[in-house]
């Protein structure tokens, strides 16, 4: 396999890792608003993601950094095209990160309520927007001969990409609800299971519609369409399997199922994209592909040498953290 | 303003503010790690003081770290958003250290600081101690890689220009990671960072000592041990500022010589030296326009610039006019001098602020010698000024080196105007500049307010953490909530030692 393709896969893996990991902490952030009853329950939710959310967020920093290093054209074109949505995402992520840390550092009820609002909005905006932007890759953008974005907002916000946003939002919420069921004890755990049961069908429906749309509308005929189709089907099956596991009280399996669902969804998007990385809707020749957007072989080789030992190392120590904080929390544990 | 100016203002504002938080995090992470190490190695009850200091300054570290982390996101994104042609031109070279920073440093920092925050009382103390050290090392690695990227812009090495695409391609990663500008800028930046953390520790300790001495009746019940602990931390902070100050001066001297070699224009601009001179004097201050006309008044040290730039008191230093001629020949018509008043004054303000910080730190040590505690209002002012000085020095240093590189974005290869995103409109950038400026102003206010709020109370009660430390976490290794799965355990519902 060519190095550029290896890096396409690695970038895909980083994005997928981000969606699967920060996806659930976005979901938990969304649940702090209405689902949590009172301050103590809200604190339970914050504390089950407290030790891990920041590490989860590094996945997107690395995905973007790896894109910059391995596909500078992709990074430059997409990030200047996605300017305003990215400003929104940045504002949301800045607020959210501060909220987790600062919420506990004030004394008044009002202080905490404000930060609670920031946690909710800061989870809502990126959980939706990243779906829009990633679906935008699969859909393509109007790019001119210099690979610069030559369109307007409605080229980014299309029915397809908006559905992509709805998908990442809904699935993150379901994924987060499964996480709460796995990580808590008491009433909150029971309610999380009940809520997950109600969310499963809408989530599966969105995944099915978006998957079908991607397969028929945005995957090239041939092998790419087959792989995309299999991934789409796997995503739907995974969400359904999560619902079954949840109904049987197998919370760990339900969480693993939505994790798999997110992975399958991400694999589907990137499979439909390959060998393009950002197609142009104006002229096929102006689109960015794995070949014309990638860095030199030397740079890719260097980066491969760095990634080979360090990606597994990161996985190892991040897994250790999840293991270290594996125990369930309930309202009784909040000091 | 056009897109270019707006994009430059956004980069300047977001970067300068981000860099208030960065040096604070780097140095405070190490200082807190050192305090926690001493706590672990000492025996109770003496060790308790160190635990309380760790918790106290650890909280300040976290308030700062949070805002440093989130503002860092903007940095990574805006290369692509505002500077897409720059990203295309250098991505092959510049992206690699950025990706390495994420993979090698950000994961370490973010993952392990989470364990440090939530690990109190839940994991074995020795493992917990290791997490703060790993976090601290992560901040150093991060600084190294991002400075490698910046040093390429200051002094491009290890690349060639691809003829077909006209873009820079990496040919030698080791050359990039051992760029001579990087090798001197890294220690300079780290010493400058050490001054910030040291100043915060020293200033907060001084404030508590003075307040305790001025108003003994207001002191906390535990005041006598608080005073003792703050006396110790004051020494740590002041000594850190002094070590940082000496280090910054020594490395800064070398850096000036390296910079004279690779960007003589920047150093000529730092002196507003228009005509080449042999030997060249260094002006401490100038009253005048700095545009080459005779100044109204100038205080000069003869031959000093020759020494600073080359190491010899008699050497010739090239002036702006000669360099302008030389560059015009080399790169074609154009203006090759940076904004002279900005480079001239930021260079001096950097040195002055850093020097004053070291002087105040020295005075802190002197005024608290052998059990003394000053009670004058001046002492409080000194404490208030101390952290501001090295922060200002850091900011001036960066403004100097980045503004001094103009008109280049990548020295000798890419002009700043050629790096900006061609497809992005001025309205878009203006909206984002406005949003980030307002947000960052708010962040600064919030940051100062929270730091003051949490620096004001005395040292915290740490009895729960102390018990955990003494037991070595042996029967507590899995945490208060550790056995929540095990319904038989009476402790299963015990509250956590720490939670948000």
TrEMBL record, chain A:
<keyword id="KW-1003">Cell membrane</keyword>
<keyword id="KW-0249">Electron transport</keyword>
<keyword id="KW-0479">Metal-binding</keyword>
<dbReference type="GO" id="GO:0046872">
    <property type="term" value="F:metal ion binding"/>
</dbReference>
<feature type="transmembrane region" description="Helical">
    <location>
        <begin position="115"/>
        <end position="137"/>
    </location>
</feature>
<dbReference type="InterPro" id="IPR003317">
    <property type="entry name" value="Cyt-d_oxidase_su2"/>
</dbReference>
<dbReference type="GO" id="GO:0019646">
    <property type="term" value="P:aerobic electron transport chain"/>
</dbReference>
<keyword id="KW-0813">Transport</keyword>
<dbReference type="GO" id="GO:0005886">
    <property type="term" value="C:plasma membrane"/>
</dbReference>
<keyword id="KW-0349">Heme</keyword>
<dbReference type="GO" id="GO:0016682">
    <property type="term" value="F:oxidoreductase activity, acting on diphenols and related substances as donors, oxygen as acceptor"/>
</dbReference>
<keyword id="KW-0812">Transmembrane</keyword>
<protein>
    <submittedName>
        <fullName>Cytochrome bd-I ubiquinol oxidase subunit 2 apoprotein</fullName>
    </submittedName>
</protein>
<feature type="transmembrane region" description="Helical">
    <location>
        <begin position="254"/>
        <end position="274"/>
    </location>
</feature>
<feature type="transmembrane region" description="Helical">
    <location>
        <begin position="302"/>
        <end position="323"/>
    </location>
</feature>
<feature type="transmembrane region" description="Helical">
    <location>
        <begin position="225"/>
        <end position="247"/>
    </location>
</feature>
<feature type="transmembrane region" description="Helical">
    <location>
        <begin position="157"/>
        <end position="174"/>
    </location>
</feature>
<dbReference type="GO" id="GO:0009055">
    <property type="term" value="F:electron transfer activity"/>
</dbReference>
<keyword id="KW-0408">Iron</keyword>
<feature type="transmembrane region" description="Helical">
    <location>
        <begin position="44"/>
        <end position="68"/>
    </location>
</feature>
<keyword id="KW-0472">Membrane</keyword>
<comment type="similarity">
    <text>Belongs to the cytochrome ubiquinol oxidase subunit 2 family.</text>
</comment>
UniProtKB/TrEMBL annotation, chain B:
<feature type="transmembrane region" description="Helical">
    <location>
        <begin position="234"/>
        <end position="252"/>
    </location>
</feature>
<feature type="transmembrane region" description="Helical">
    <location>
        <begin position="56"/>
        <end position="74"/>
    </location>
</feature>
<feature type="transmembrane region" description="Helical">
    <location>
        <begin position="190"/>
        <end position="210"/>
    </location>
</feature>
<dbReference type="GO" id="GO:0005886">
    <property type="term" value="C:plasma membrane"/>
</dbReference>
<dbReference type="InterPro" id="IPR002585">
    <property type="entry name" value="Cyt-d_ubiquinol_oxidase_su_1"/>
</dbReference>
<comment type="similarity">
    <text>Belongs to the cytochrome ubiquinol oxidase subunit 1 family.</text>
</comment>
<dbReference type="GO" id="GO:0016682">
    <property type="term" value="F:oxidoreductase activity, acting on diphenols and related substances as donors, oxygen as acceptor"/>
</dbReference>
<keyword id="KW-1003">Cell membrane</keyword>
<keyword id="KW-0479">Metal-binding</keyword>
<feature type="transmembrane region" description="Helical">
    <location>
        <begin position="378"/>
        <end position="400"/>
    </location>
</feature>
<dbReference type="GO" id="GO:0046872">
    <property type="term" value="F:metal ion binding"/>
</dbReference>
<dbReference type="GO" id="GO:0020037">
    <property type="term" value="F:heme binding"/>
</dbReference>
<keyword id="KW-0349">Heme</keyword>
<feature type="transmembrane region" description="Helical">
    <location>
        <begin position="94"/>
        <end position="118"/>
    </location>
</feature>
<keyword id="KW-1133">Transmembrane helix</keyword>
<feature type="transmembrane region" description="Helical">
    <location>
        <begin position="345"/>
        <end position="366"/>
    </location>
</feature>
<feature type="transmembrane region" description="Helical">
    <location>
        <begin position="12"/>
        <end position="35"/>
    </location>
</feature>
<keyword id="KW-0472">Membrane</keyword>
<dbReference type="GO" id="GO:0009055">
    <property type="term" value="F:electron transfer activity"/>
</dbReference>
<keyword id="KW-0812">Transmembrane</keyword>
<feature type="transmembrane region" description="Helical">
    <location>
        <begin position="429"/>
        <end position="452"/>
    </location>
</feature>
<dbReference type="GO" id="GO:0019646">
    <property type="term" value="P:aerobic electron transport chain"/>
</dbReference>
């Amino acid at each position: 396999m060519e190095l550029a393709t290896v890096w396409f896969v690695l970038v895909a893996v980083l994005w997928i890792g981000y969606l699967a990991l920060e996806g659930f902490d976005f979901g938990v952030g969304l649940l702090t608003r209405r689902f949590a009853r009172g301050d103590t329950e809200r604190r339970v939710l914050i504390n089950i993601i407290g030790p891990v959310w920041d590490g989860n967020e590094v996945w997107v920093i690395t995905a973007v950094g790896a894109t910059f290093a391995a596909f500078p054209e992709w990074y430059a074109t997409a990030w200047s095209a996605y300017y305003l949505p990215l400003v929104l995402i940045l504002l949301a992520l800045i607020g959210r990160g501060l909220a987790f840390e600062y919420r506990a550092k004030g004394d008044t009820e009002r202080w905490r309520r404000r930060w609670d609002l920031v946690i909710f909005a800061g989870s809502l905006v990126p959980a939706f927007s990243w779906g829009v932007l990633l679906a935008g890759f699969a859909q393509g953008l109007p790019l001119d001969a210099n690979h610069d974005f030559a369109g307007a907002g409605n080229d980014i916000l299309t029915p397809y990409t908006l559905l992509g946003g709805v998908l990442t939002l809904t699935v993150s919420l379901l994924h987060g609800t499964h996480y709460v069921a796995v990580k808590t004890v008491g009433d909150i755990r029971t309610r999380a299971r009940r809520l997950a049961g109600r969310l499963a069908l809408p989530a599966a429906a969105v995944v099915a519609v978006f998957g079908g749309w991607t397969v028929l509308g945005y995957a090239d005929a041939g092998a790419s369409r087959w792989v995309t189709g299999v991934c789409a089907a796997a995503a739907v099956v995974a969400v359904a399997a999560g619902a079954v596991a949840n109904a049987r009280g197998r919370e760990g399996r339900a969480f693993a199922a939505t994790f798999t669902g997110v992975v399958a969804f991400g694999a589907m998007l990137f499979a439909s994209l390959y060998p393009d990385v950002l197609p142009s809707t104006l002229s096929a020749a102006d689109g960015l592909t794995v070949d014309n957007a990638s860095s030199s072989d030397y740079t890719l080789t260097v980066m491969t040498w760095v990634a080979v030992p360090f990606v597994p190392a990161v996985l190892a120590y991040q897994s250790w953290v999840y293991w270290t904080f594996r125990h369930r929390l309930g309202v009784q544990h909040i000091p | 303003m056009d897109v270019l100016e707006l994009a430059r203002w956004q980069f300047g504002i977001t970067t300068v503010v981000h860099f208030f938080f960065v040096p604070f995090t780097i140095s405070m992470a190490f200082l807190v790690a050192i305090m926690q190490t001493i706590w672990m190695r000492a025996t109770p009850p003496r060790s308790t003081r160190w635990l309380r200091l760790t918790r106290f300054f650890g909280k300040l570290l976290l308030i700062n770290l949070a805002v440093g982390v989130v503002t860092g996101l903007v940095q990574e994104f805006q290369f692509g958003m505002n500077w897409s042609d720059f990203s295309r031109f250098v991505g092959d070279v510049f992206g690699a250290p950025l990706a390495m920073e994420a993979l090698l440093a950000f994961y370490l920092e973010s993952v392990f600081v989470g364990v440090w925050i939530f690990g109190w009382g839940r994991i074995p103390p020795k493992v917990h101690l290791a997490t703060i050290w790993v976090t601290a090392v992560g901040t150093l690695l991060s600084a190294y890689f991002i400075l490698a990227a910046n040093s390429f812009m200051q002094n491009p090495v290890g690349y060639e220009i691809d003829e077909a695409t006209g873009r820079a391609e990496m040919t030698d990663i080791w050359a990039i990671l051992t760029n001579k500008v990087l090798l001197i800028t890294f220690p300079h930046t780290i010493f400058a960072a050490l001054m910030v953390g040291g100043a915060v520790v020293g200033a907060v300790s001084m404030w508590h000592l003075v307040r305790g001495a001025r108003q003994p009746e207001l002191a906390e019940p535990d005041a006598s041990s608080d005073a003792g602990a703050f006396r110790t931390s004051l020494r740590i902070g002041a000594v850190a500022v002094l070590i940082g100050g000496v280090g910054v001066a020594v490395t800064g001297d070398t850096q000036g010589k390296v910079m004279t070699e690779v960007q003589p224009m920047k150093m000529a601009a730092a002196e507003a030296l228009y005509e080449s001179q042999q030997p060249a004097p260094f002006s401490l201050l100038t009253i005048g326009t700095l545009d080459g006309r005779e100044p109204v008044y100038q205080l000069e040290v003869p031959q000093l610039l020759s020494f600073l730039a080359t190491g010899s008191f008699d050497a010739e230093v090239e002036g702006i006019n000669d360099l302008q001629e030389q560059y015009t020949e080399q790169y074609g018509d154009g203006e090759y001098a940076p904004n002279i008043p900005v480079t001239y004054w930021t260079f001096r303000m950097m040195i002055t602020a850093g020097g004053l910080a070291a002087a105040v730190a020295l005075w802190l040590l002197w005024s608290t010698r052998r059990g003394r505690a000053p009670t004058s209002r001046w002492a409080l002012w000194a404490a208030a000024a101390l952290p501001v000085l090295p922060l200002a020095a850091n900011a001036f240093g960066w403004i100097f080196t980045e503004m001094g590189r103009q008109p280049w974005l990548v020295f000798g290869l890419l002009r700043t105007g050629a790096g900006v995103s061609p497809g992005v409109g001025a309205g878009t950038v203006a909206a984002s500049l406005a949003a980030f400026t307002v947000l960052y102003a708010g962040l600064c206010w919030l940051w100062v307010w929270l730091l003051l709020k949490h620096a004001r109370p005395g040292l915290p009660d740490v009895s729960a953490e102390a018990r955990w430390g003494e037991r070595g976490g042996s029967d507590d290794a899995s945490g208060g909530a550790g056995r929540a799965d095990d319904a038989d355990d009476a402790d299963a519902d015990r509250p956590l030692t720490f939670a948000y």
